[in-house]
Amino acid sequence: MARVKGGKTSNKRRKNILAMTKGYRHARSTKKRAAKEAIFHAGKYAFAHRRDKKNDFRRLWNVRINAGLRLIDEKLSYSKFIGAANKKGVGLNSKMLATLAEQQPEVFARIVSQI
């Protein structure tokens, strides 16, 4: 059996790892071991933050709906409005309501008056 040297494969692997860490600072962009660790952590953060993003948007929608309600009536709050909307069986979700409250306040005001 002939001897196989792994230089070509090792260089390719190293080049790919360092390509993934382009723009990172210090050793993380130049040294294979540090770069590999940086990629691992970046992947973990990306996974967790994809989940966090959903909560962030839900929080933003709630704030937008509440702000829209306060423009219509000072005493009206988000929780009372959502409770009433659920009892009425309104088919609009928070994302839709938030968009209406922000971009079309007159339509949002009509929906609130019906609820």
What does this structure look like?
75% of the residues lie in helices and 0% in strands. It has a single domain (7-114), classed as Ribosomal protein L20, C-terminal domain (c-terminal domain of poly(a) binding protein), CATH 1.10.1900.20. It has helices at 7-20, 32-72, 78-88, 94-103, 105-114. The radius of gyration is 26 Å and the shape is rod-shaped.
Q: What is the element layout, followed by pairings?
A:
Elements: H1 7-20, H2 32-72, H3 78-88, H4 94-103, H5 105-114
Helix pairs in contact: 1-2, 2-4, 4-5
**Averaged pLDDT:** 94
Our measurement of the CA-to-CA distance between the termini, rounded to an integer number of angstroms, reads 81 Å
The CATH level-2 architecture is identified as Orthogonal Bundle
Number of contiguous helices: 5
Query: Largest sheet, described in full?
Result: none
Structural class comes to mainly alpha
The share of residues in extended strands comes to: under 5%
For the record, the count of structural domains works out to 1
List low-confidence stretches: none
What sequence of helices (H) and strands (E) makes up the elements?
Answer: HHHHH
Full CATH superfamily name? Ribosomal protein L20, C-terminal domain
| Rg (CA only) | 26 Å
Number of strands: 0
Residue share in helices? Answer: over 70%
Shape: rod-shaped
CATH names the topology as c-terminal domain of poly(a) binding protein
CATH C-level class is: Mainly Alpha
